[in-house]
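Run log // design_07
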């Protein structure tokens, strides 16, 4: 088998998919992730799902190129619409805004079942997504991923029905990331502080109240 390479971001997401899983990749675009999993013999079945025709065509072409049409089914669908019929064990939603991911999850009761694994990689609004997940989801694993000068966050969660209350720092950087730390976490921490510092400078210039952002920066500085 020729090596099939995908980005570190998608490779990290794929590492949380359980062996033998039935996977739904929501917002699959090119279908790189299900193709990677299928080529490595990691999954029983995958559904490569997308809302738009362009990505659906790209996914179909790529899947056929690797003769994986019997393992990966392409579906034009909005979020998790009709997901019950597919019965995925593992659901991947990567490369979308955190608020969109939260709204996709909120529109489906299927994800609120024990044993269904969610692998989420928000591009923006990470804190807001974690806030949403406090409503009954527990964090199994998290990653900070540095690639091409950018830092991404990824969380693998499952529903347990228990309400959580994360601290501000946990919402920002992730409860598991804070425990595991490591080089990529350090980069995430420094870049988060730098972003907040910029906001602080802007607020100061505009003569606005900076109490809250100063408190947030000082909390983060303690982690250095
Ligand atoms: C930036 S791409 C991410 C592709 C891939 N998941 C990744 O992380 O590299 C986002 C994809 O999500 C799709 N998308 C956006 N909203 C969606 C929705 N509500 N349901 C399904 N797919 C959606 C877009 O059409 C697009 O193909």
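design_07 sequence
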């Amino acid at each position: 088998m020729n090596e099939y390479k995908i980005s570190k971001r998608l490779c990290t997401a794929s590492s949380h998919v359980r062996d033998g899983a039935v996977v739904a990749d929501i917002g699959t675009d090119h279908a790189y992730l299900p193709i990677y999993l299928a080529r490595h013999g990691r999954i029983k079945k995958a559904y490569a799902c997308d809302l738009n025709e362009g990505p659906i065509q790209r996914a179909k072409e790529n899947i056929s190129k690797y003769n994986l049409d019997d393992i990966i089914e392409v579906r034009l669908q909005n979020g998790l619409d009709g997901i019950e019929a597919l019965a995925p064990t593992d659901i991947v939603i990567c490369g979308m805004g955190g608020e969109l991911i939260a709204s996709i999850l909120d529109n489906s009761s299927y994800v609120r079942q024990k044993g269904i694994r969610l692998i989420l990689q928000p591009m923006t609004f990470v804190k807001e997504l974690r806030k949403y997940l406090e409503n009954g989801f527990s964090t199994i694993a998290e990653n900070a991923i540095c690639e091409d000068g950018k830092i991404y966050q990824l969380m693998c969660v499952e529903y347990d029905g228990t309400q959580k209350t994360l601290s501000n720092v946990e919402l920002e950087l992730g409860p598991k990331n804070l425990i595991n730390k490591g080089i990529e976490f350090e980069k995430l921490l420094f870049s988060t502080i730098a972003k907040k510092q910029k906001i602080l400078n802007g607020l100061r210039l505009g003569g606005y109240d900076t109490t809250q952002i100063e408190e947030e920066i000082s909390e983060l500085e303690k982690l250095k």
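The radius of gyration is 19 Å.
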